[in-house]
Amino acid sequence: MKFVWLAGSAALVVAGLAPSMAGAQSVTPKAAAEPASPASTAYPTSAAGDGNTVGGYNQSRWAEDWRKLCDPAKRDDPIDALKCVKLTEDGKSYVTFSGELRTRMNLTTNPNLREVQQQRQDIARIVGGADVHLGDHFRVFGELGRAELQGINLGTPNANLRNKLAVQQLFAEVKGKALGLDVGVRAGRQEFFDGPQLLTVGRDNNTLYFVLDGVRAYARGTNARVDVFDLNYVNYGYEGISDDKTNPDVRFSGATFGFRLSPKLFGGSKLYLDPFIWRLRNRRAVWGPTTGLEERYFLGLHAYGDAGPVNIDWTVNNQRGTFVNRPISAWQAFIAQTYRLGKKPDSPRVGIHFDYGSGGGAYDRAGPLNTTNGLFGNNIYYSYGLFLTPTNLLYTAPNFTFTPIKGVRVAAEYGFAWRPDEFDAVYRASGVAWAGTQNVRGKKVAEVARLQAV
């Protein structure tokens, strides 16, 4: 058994244009969000697949709606004027400027679970963007990012950690009404959050966000929605904006459906059900000693929301397909819930989550591959040391969350990790196997204690 104690500290400095949503990848289920997206007025924006908006701010700046600040009487400070710079007298064409400066320090002792010099990452994220609205039906959003990284024992940082300048997002969107539905198409480089957080997030722990290139279209009604997409992964370069390229080897496509359940359920609730069918095609997938073409299909169901004092975030998905000439047969389940101990929204919560990702066959030359793929999920959900991911993993953790002072949330949990197949490896957050762990017998992997304040 390996015992892991994780502790970290972070400092957040906001330029004032738009604060970072650093809590978007917490250990507890998604918090209730406030509608503030220009993309949809009928279907609840907190469930529309565009991330969470709280207090008007969203991790994705394009999902924010600052049209109210076109009225000078509603502005509180000089920066508010940058949220609506009119291009026409009637205000239907305008620009919203945004930006972020985030500094963070990650200190990891015994990095990679080895007795070596500690690692210290001094991180600075610098982002500036503009959302140009030309009338009610067309807009262009662009965002440049710079990733600074200094410290001790850094090794060779990836380009999403250290980057002189990158086009983090750049897309055009056409939207409108059709058959009583809100419809739209976005084409270009963009973030993608339309799924469970253990499968699809922007990976806020990195200096630059995880982004994709391609097309995404949606249609949203009062109680139902559909979102279809065809995207490719992006390979960041280290230099200027010309070396951030579409990765033609990794293609992610599919459809997500959403249904708002009756608010009368359980005596009053806000519950949503999102079936999804996705495909991941990777020409250079690596499992064990083999590299080759993988076509993996995800057929799943995501249920989440609130019913009285209970918050749930449940996902089950079956993964099928082929890896080289071998069949894929794998399962994942993420079952998280908390219970509010009081009437107030910030009352303490107790909870527990169970997570399962099947394993087996990664080091075989024939037969089925039972190892799951975690896509680009929350890479700090289990540890800020990036030690674990829901691939060949069985994990459970009771947790407790409370608010000691206004605006500060403290979350504590103690987790237990096993691997379902002891002949398969333990996998880190990047999806890469810990070398040699497939040769170590025993299913117990770790116990993880976590304490964080956000």
TrEMBL record:
The keyword Signal applies. InterPro entries: Alginate_export_dom, Alginate_Permeability_Chnl. Residues 35-48 have a biased composition (Low complexity). It comes from the Bacteria. Residues 35-54 are annotated as: Disordered. It holds the Pfam family Alginate_exp. This is Alginate export domain-containing protein. Keywords: Signal. Residues 1-24 form the signal peptide. Residues 94-446 form the Alginate export domain.
